[in-house]
Design goal:
Bound molecules: NADP nicotinamide-adenine-dinucleotide phosphate
CATH architecture of the largest domain in chain B: 3-Layer(aba) Sandwich
CATH topology of the largest domain in chain A: Alpha-Beta Plaits
Number of strands of chain B: 13
Distance between the termini of chain A: 38 Å
Radius of gyration of chain A: 18 Å
Helix content of chain A: 25-40%
CATH class of the largest domain in chain B: Alpha Beta
CATH topology of the largest domain in chain B: Rossmann fold
Number of helices of chain B: 11
Strand content of chain A: 35-45%
Strand content of chain B: 15-25%
Strand order of the largest sheet of chain A: 2-3-1-4-5
Number of helices of chain A: 4
CATH superfamily of the largest domain in chain B: NAD(P)-binding Rossmann-like Domain
Largest sheet of chain B: 7 strands, mixed
Largest sheet of chain A: 5 strands, antiparallel
Number of domains of chain A: 2
CATH class of the largest domain in chain A: Alpha Beta
Structural class of chain A: alpha+beta
CATH superfamily of the largest domain in chain A: ACT domain
Shape of chain B: globular
Largest interface: A-B, 22 and 23 residues
Structural class of chain B: alpha/beta
Strand order of the largest sheet of chain B: 4-3-2-1-5-6-7
Oligomer: heterodimer
Order of helices and strands of chain A: EHEEHEEEHEEHE
Number of strands of chain A: 9
Shape of chain A: elongated
Radius of gyration of chain B: 20 Å
Helix content of chain B: 40-55%
Chain lengths: 162, 337
């Protein structure tokens, strides 16, 4: 059988080779690789579509191996694996302990903060942070609620996606 | 159709202007003849059973600022709601200022007209956001029509649109930009990287923001409107106090910069959905239907059968808002033919 994967890789040398390595090692065939270097996110990642072939067990082993190596699998056969949730916070971000803000979100099951961007303002009380969260699909509501909760407890203005 | 206009400010004058411009056209097109039998402002009332002249009304108000100076038929000091009992009319057009404390004096005007068996058309959000059920209930009990298209989104069709064009659909949620002033400020901040305070000041100088901008920038105005939509097109039973409100006064250039870097804009969004009733700054993808600029209003209705439907239009303005009042009046008249 065949499986279509969309991976998200950093656009630096060696990343693609590293991602392809477990596929060959575990005995799956690579049918196609589409590397779209022109659609780069601000985190410097690019989506890569890979079609692989093998029996069911082999393909599942490949998926676990990729996950073990922390390679971000966005979609399997067109079904999104990960949702990306963007949010912006305004407030006294630094004094309110950046690490604890991130930890509170990471504490949710299947959720991790993938990117955190801080922009200071002339008034430290009004600095802004953009967080990018990756969550297992279906967790969106829970994550948005949690961000609001964190915001309330730290007196941040929370700007969630619509 | 005999019309009583309560309030002669931007919207009241717009209505009279529209009658003046469209009068002949409406007569030819529908056989519909509007007669303005009374206009009230804080100075008193101009009132005549046989109809007042639209242009003379506008000239009088322009010249002296008092509608009671209307030649021959002006009555200084005849104030609301007494004036409502002094003349025969079919429909009250209630366009006095919005009051979000108790909805007065508009609420009293509307309830009186309804119990006198008159239809009511309004652009006034206050009473609708505070006591929607009471007003709609009173209209029903008295078997009169009550329409308020102009109260949300000015000229942008949404309430009648949902009731008529989408009558077979369930509306599952509404997301919208329902306040033009804040959308203007946020659009300018995004374009110019300017601060909130500076941009607000410029908007005030241009007459886009009011001297006291609190209701706009703190989200109360948008909250009133989402309450009206939630009640009227999603059959909810909510009022202003049920809305979680965050305005735009804390939005910084830094936050807009971070959003833009990822292709997002910050917009003041009003949401009504199954478990949410809120007004708050939200991230909207650039180029998506909600990413409208300037003073424009927009709303996306999520429906069960037709998926997403988005409407865009001018959220304020004298003649623009009057256009929504006019369509309510025409629809009342058509329903009685
Ligand atoms: N402007 C818009 O674009 C717009 C859009 C949508 C909805 N609305 C709503 O429409 C309504 C009217 O807005 P507007 O912009 O026309 O307001 P406005 O310019 O302030 O005019 C209000 C008018 O009401 C009169 N008035 C005040 N108290 C009164 C009373 N007790 N009895 C009779 N008349 C009274 C005022 O008299 P004086 O002239 O003597 O002061 C004035 O003529 C408001 O509820 C507003 O929220 C406005």
């Amino acid at each position: 059988m065949r499986m279509n994967l969309v991976l998200e890789l950093l656009d630096v040398p060696g990343q693609l080779v590293d991602a392809l390595e477990p596929i060959g090692r575990l005995g799956a065939n690579i049918v196609a690789v589409i590397h779209q270097r022109d659609v780069k996110t601000e985190q410097g990642t690019v989506p890569v579509q890979i079609t692989i072939e093998g029996d069911k067990d082999t393909l599942n082993h490949v998926l676990s191996a990729l996950e073990d190596e922390n390679i971000c699998i966005i979609a399997v056969d067109g079904v999104l694996r990960k949702e990306r949730i963007m949010s912006i916070l305004i407030g006294n971000i630094v004094d309110q302990d950046v690490k604890s803000t991130v930890d509170m979100l990471n504490a949710l099951d299947g959720v991790n903060v993938a990117d955190f961007n801080l922009k200071m303002s002339d008034y430290p009380k009004n600095s802004a942070a953009r967080i990018l969260i990756e969550a297992e699909s279906g967790k969106r509501k829970e994550v948005l609620k949690k961000i609001k909760e964190v915001g309330k407890s730290k007196e941040f203005l929370v700007i969630n996606e619509v | 159709m005999k019309i009583f206009i309560m309030g002669f400010g931007a919207v009241g004058k717009g209505v009279v202007k529209v009658f003046s411009i469209k009068g002949n056209n409406l007569k030819q097109k529908y056989g519909l003849d509007f007669e303005i039998v009374a206009v009230t402002d804080t100075s008193g009332t101009a009132l005549c059973d046989k109809g007042l002249d639209p242009d003379l009304l506008l000239n009088t108000k322009e010249k002296t600022g008092r509608v009671c100076d209307y030649p021959e038929y002006g009555i200084p000091g005849l104030s609301s709601p007494e004036a409502l009992s002094k003349v025969e009319y079919d429909c009250l057009v209630e366009v006095t200022p919005t009051n979000i404390e108790d909805g007065e004096p508009a609420k009293t005007h509307m309830l009186k007209a309804m119990s006198d068996k008159k239809d009511v058309v309004t652009s006034n959000k206050g009473p609708l956001a505070l006591c929607f059920k009471e007003l709609v209930g009173t209209a029903k009990n008295n078997n009169v029509q009550f329409k308020f298209e102009a109260s949300v989104g000015g000229a942008m069709p949404i309430i009648n649109f949902a009731h008529e064009n989408l009558s077979g659909c369930d509306i599952e949620s509404i997301f919208g930009i329902l306040n033009g002033t804040t959308n203007y400020i946020l659009s300018r901040m995004a374009k110019e990287g300017s601060s909130y305070e500076q941009t607000l000041k410029e908007a005030q100088e241009m007459g886009i923001a009011e001297t006291d901008p609190t209701q706009d920038v703190e989200g109360t105005d948008a909250a009133c409107k989402i309450v009206i939509l939630a009640n009227s097109i999603m059959n909810m039973d909510v009022s202003l106090g049920d809305v979680e409100i965050n305005g735009i006064s804390k939005i910084t250039p830094e936050s807009i910069f971070l959003a833009k870097k990822e292709g997002y804009l910050i917009k003041l969004i009003a949401e009504a959905s199954l478990d949410t009733l809120e007004v708050s700054p939200r991230l909207v993808k650039e180029g998506s239907p909600l990413s409208v600029e300037g003073t424009m209003n927009v709303a996306t209705l999520k429906t069960d059968l037709a998926e997403d439907i988005t409407v865009v239009g001018k959220g304020a303005g004298s003649v623009e808002t009057a256009s929504a009042i006019l369509s309510d009046l025409i629809s009342i008249w058509k329903s009685k033919k």
